[in-house]
Design a protein that fits this description.
This protein has helices at residues 25-28, 36-39, 140-147, 161-174, 184-196, 204-224, 228-246, 249-255, 258-271, 278-293, 309-331, 372-391, 401-417, 428-434, 437-453, 464-490, 498-517, 524-548, 552-563; strands at residues 8-9, 15-16, 97-101, 104-107, 110-113. The chain is mainly α. Residues 17-36, 44-75 have a biased composition (Polar residues).
Amino acid sequence: MAYPSNVVFDSAGNPISDPTSTSNDDISGNRNGNSDSSHDISKGQWSRQYNSNITSPKWTKGRSLSSRSPMASISQDIVEPKPADAHLGVNTDQAPLSSIKGTTLSILGSTIDINLFDAPDMDETPPNAAARSPLYNKSLQAMMQTALNVNPPLHVEYPPKADAFTYAEWYFLMIYPFLPILHKPTFMTLLTRLYEDAGFVPTPAETVMLHMVYASIYLQYGIRQEQPEQKSRLHEMSNNHYHFALGKFFDLATSRKLVDVQALTMIALHTSRFPKTDCSHMITCYALGMAIELNLHRAFKQPGEGTNLENEMRKRIWWCLAATAIANSGRMGRPMPIRLEECDAGFPEPIADELLTRDGVDTSRVLKCPYEVGVAAHKISALYLEMYSNVYAARRDPRRYLPVVEALEEQLQNWQDSLPESLKIDDLDRAEHEGHMFALYMKFLSNEFRLCLRHPSVALTNDPGILAENARICEATASEMLRISHSLLKLKSLDTTWYCLAVYIASIFTTLAAHWERRYEATAAEVQTLREDMSLWLLILTETGNLMGTSISAYFVYLYCLSHGC
């Protein structure tokens, strides 16, 4: 097709009309009789200009988030690309809240990279070290050296029998409810055979799962250990079991059975607890690709066919892995690993492990499912996938912005309404006293979702009413996230990952940006409330930094707040 001489093109080769020209309807977007002014996106500090040349199908509401039917995605036609690095918070340079790109966050000219801190357990080998020097810490280099057999193999003993069974029970108490990657009866049978059958030799996948349970427990206790020497020892023990398991990477990658993906997923989930992001992203992407090759993203049973152990484990492995990949890619501003319409694997059924068998479900007994929180987290991860794919995509149609937001908020409400009673909590004080940690995390996830969905930097509209509503919702949501995080702090249940640290700082910057916008009208009482909120956030950040082994993030935010009179 020939274009007029006044047409320019973007980096992807798409035509962009000269902003001074209005004569060519085919290029300017008036072909459907729509006025340019109705779709123009303001170049102001809370929004960005986009072109909506190509008509996209309307967003369809009313989709169910039942365990059998994950919310279906809506296909999008290609529209004009947005500027590079438009992740959560990225906006024009004049924006008060201008960047939260992966682990780098900027506001009012100040930048924080929560990935830049000294952590002996995460550092690569120094430049003057000998090539291929053995390294067994949590760094990407160490992971690659072990996975590719550059590191000499470690000899790691299993813990004594009594300790091993205790650690297993702790694992199923602390980690399993959120990430039900293992079937408890199967794993406990494996553990029994390991210690009671002298002739038993576990497969590589079984070996990895055993060592990753120990690595996970040592890591959790190392994170919360206050004595430096004991903390260092626990981290070293965790790293040894992790690297021993990682040394089986070749066996898992070449065997390529369901249990091998399960074992790889355990490694991926473990690395997601590291203070930095590289290991988790790399191993998760590989494991997800292997899972797709085994069709874990597709339904294994026909509708009405019933379920059994294999079907449920396929779904649990898939959604544990997919949720981790979605969280990593979304928070780091990378493309989503899969579209929801390409995945028809249902969500796991909340069935207690003791009732799941190879032949079906034991209906003669009724037992409470201990991983309801994990199932709920899997379901909202599908919503996150839809949000990142539609609201944070590289190409978006401004005409679809509001329908998409409204539909996703409707689905979020459906998700909240469908939560089990044990995961619903309105009184945060009661949650603190009764220990409803799972309910607090579900409330935190829903608020984080709304913050990302309504963030002003991704609002493809210049409607003052919508922009004001977005700002109001984000500020209220950030305030609610502070209250939830404070409750988790008092329960000593704060998350200790880079992901949550990034969310905490995003909430802080959202609050600061909102107050900055109305700084000339602020009352003394509002300023005092802001000071108190920032002090509380810094307390949470300091505790999180201490648990992660660094206080650098809290230090940067503290300097920023001081410099701006917070």
